[in-house]
């Protein structure tokens, strides 16, 4: 298994194939893959990720696209595998920043993108071409074939990419569901045909590489949903991923069977239901859906609420309902809440809090992997082995997963006969160079993250996020002082604080007096060094000393705001002559 990093930059030979992940490796989400040969580059997907708990105020996380900017002239197009946000959520950012000639993808994904472009004023910025199963398209020198995959969203595809030096298979997100809700099975035949030609590289979904066996069919969820709907005495509230078309379809079918009407909460879920219905992926009578304000006039046993919030997002409808903050829906004892999803890593605590709140308000909550109301859309280990054996690739690269998942998937590939030295567990930004007979990681390009706030318009730098964390954990301390040119303290330090935890038994005013005395002593002790500094250098040096004091002496890391004013006099207050000179 190759995990070595190059010691010197070397972008490789011009006639080699280069695979450059810009997101999706070592993480869940942000799936973005660049493939280059000569002067041609194509992208597979361009997704977003959702923030971790320590990213305060951050709404979405996007891949850094500086590498794409540097090579914009080579960018020939984008192939989209399916319509999940972690695969298309970053497309508007690329389209707004770069010249992207064409996007190829399935109908549902392109319809979702069209809605995004309209919302963000990006209509007409690129050409979108809808593809059908087994269709082949040209993106620069690459011949890209879309083959039907089974996943938790309709219209999902794997890609067979024929390059000048060999064929690549990019699975996208997949599982082998042999009884899919929509009847569209994975196109194993097309993958087998490509394998007969010979597959140079397999890039395969690693999400469930730690789970043995097979992923159950989406159709298996119906039995449990049907049972819950049959036994529920009052309202039923269901949350699932807004993009899970097959799950939403089954929920609506259950509502029809038990003569309940459905109110949908959450704009993303409403949009997906409308688009899916227009494209024929869902069918339901006109009278099935109702507005939220109609719920109060309905008998509880006739109501289903379908809502976003399956990941415990603080502002989602379900979280507000659980906190009793939703204006129109209040949990009543006896309501049934179905959490038809599993946590994305990092969201466990938020989901747990939401479920606890629902129980506290008297709801009967059905949740968890063993409840039978959710199945994954990703292949487990036996299916991953099946994919590896179908393709029989020379090289293998696990994608779409946290680092431990990539490692476990690479181990599976070696079990299936891929040489260990031909498996590549990579980081975002690594450059894998391939020839017909050999491959190696030859370089690393910039592949960071871009943090976006909740209105989707403003980037947030990492320093701001770090400052928010400090503020949330240990509060803020404001320090103001005035010094002479010899760095004598003329006024201050004046100290104020918010949110600090004080030593037990110490009054705030006593703590402030002690703090002021300690900071004064720090400034005196650093006088020799401070005399050499001025302006930003002076402030930064003092700030470092004050932060060190808090860490070592007070055992806190508050956000320290420091204002230093320098007065051009040797000591004390400026003389009348100095004051006149300054005015002049």
Main features:
Metallo-beta-lactamase, Chain A, Ubiquitin-like (UB roll), disordered N terminus, single chain, 17 helices, alpha/beta, globular, 3 domains, six-stranded mixed β-sheet
Summarize the structure.
With 584 residues, the protein is α/β, with parallel strands linked by helices. It contains 17 helices and 26 strands.
Write the layout of secondary structure elements.
Elements: E1 17-23, E2 32-37, E3 40-46, E4 58-63, H1 66-70, E5 75-79, H2 85-88, H3 91-97, E6 102-105, H4 107-119, E7 127-130, E8 136-139, E9 142-149, E10 156-163, E11 166-170, H5 188-197, E12 199-205, H6 221-231, E13 236-239, H7 245-257, E14 261-265, H8 267-279, E15 289-290, E16 303-307, H9 317-322, E17 336-339, H10 348-360, E18 364-366, H11 381-391, E19 395-399, H12 403-415, E20 430-434, E21 439-444, E22 449-453, E23 459-460, H13 462-474, E24 476-483, E25 489-498, H14 508-525, H15 527-530, H16 535-554, E26 559-566, H17 576-583
CATH architecture of the largest domain: 4-Layer Sandwich
Major sheet attributes: 8 strands, mixed
What is the number of independent domains? 3
| Residues in helices, as a percent range | 25-40%
Using the alpha-carbon principal axes, give the shape.
Answer: globular
Alpha carbon gyration radius: 29 Å
The H-level CATH homologous superfamily of the largest domain, spelled out, is Ribonuclease Z/Hydroxyacylglutathione hydrolase-like
Terminal Cα span: 73 Å
Number of helices: 17
> Low-confidence parts lasting 5 or more residues at pLDDT below 50?
3-9, 573-584
Number of strands: 26
CATH class of the largest domain: Alpha Beta
